[in-house]
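Technical appendix A lists one of the benchmark inputs used to test multi-chain prediction within the project. The record comprises two sequence entries:
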Amino acid sequence: VAVIPTRFVTDFTISQRQIELWADVADDHNPLHVNPEYAAATRFGTTIAHGHLVMAHILEAMLVAIGPRWMTGGELSQMRFRAPVRSGTTCRLSAVASPPGPQSGARWGLEITDVATGTVCVSGEATIVIPPAGP
Amino acid sequence: MGHDAELTFEALAPGLRFAPQEVTITPAQLAGYAEALGADSSAGEDVVPPGFAGILARRSYLSGYRMPPGGVLLSQSVIWSAPARLGGPLRVEAGVRSAREHKSRRIVVIDTLIFQIAREPVATVETVVSWP
């Protein structure tokens, strides 16, 4: 049985190139994401990553950390987008195990921080359900 | 996208159902997904990664429409119960759970359900948006 990690940290950088690729995959070409000139005139000052791109990074990082069990049933809950992830930002995902919930499973508190500034950009919780052992 | 109509807050009455969609994730889309994330997806070659749920959730309420400028994704929750097979048709259904004004913001909560075409549930997504 694979051991489920109680704490892990992983870094990833979201480049403008990745944002543009994601815009094509998601068919979301909001100029706030893909037009640097437009975004420079907004309160963000530059282009920002799509929220669902950041979510996808979290989901992939959890898959790498936990393994295939992550694919068979789980939850990312109350993922709050507290600050924008600007183009070129290196993000750090920190996951720390929480006390188990009512279901049999494992839970982690999650935070995405901007490595350069320490700003918390996203926070929430991840859960996987672990079926009871058979007879 | 430039010709899509704006989806206004006033149109988002609680209980509103959006037109259901049938979508199929292709190998090319999976390759684009992996490239955008800067790594190969670890989900497997024949499996749709859960990260597509966020994409499908957005499409579930904005297909044929565009959000007025200034919309902000406030939070999202994703529950998935089974991996979806690449190339297998998926049905996406969505509706407005609530739409209210709070502290000068217009908060809209949208529920999206994603099924395998045989109706086996794949994922549910709750999206909370500050609507302009």
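The interface with chain A takes residues 1, 29, 32-33, 35-39, 41-44, 47, 49-52, 54-55, 57-59, 67, 72-83 of chain B (CB under 8 Å). The CA atoms of residues 92 and 114 of chain B lie 5 Å apart. Comparable benchmark entries are summarised in Table A2.
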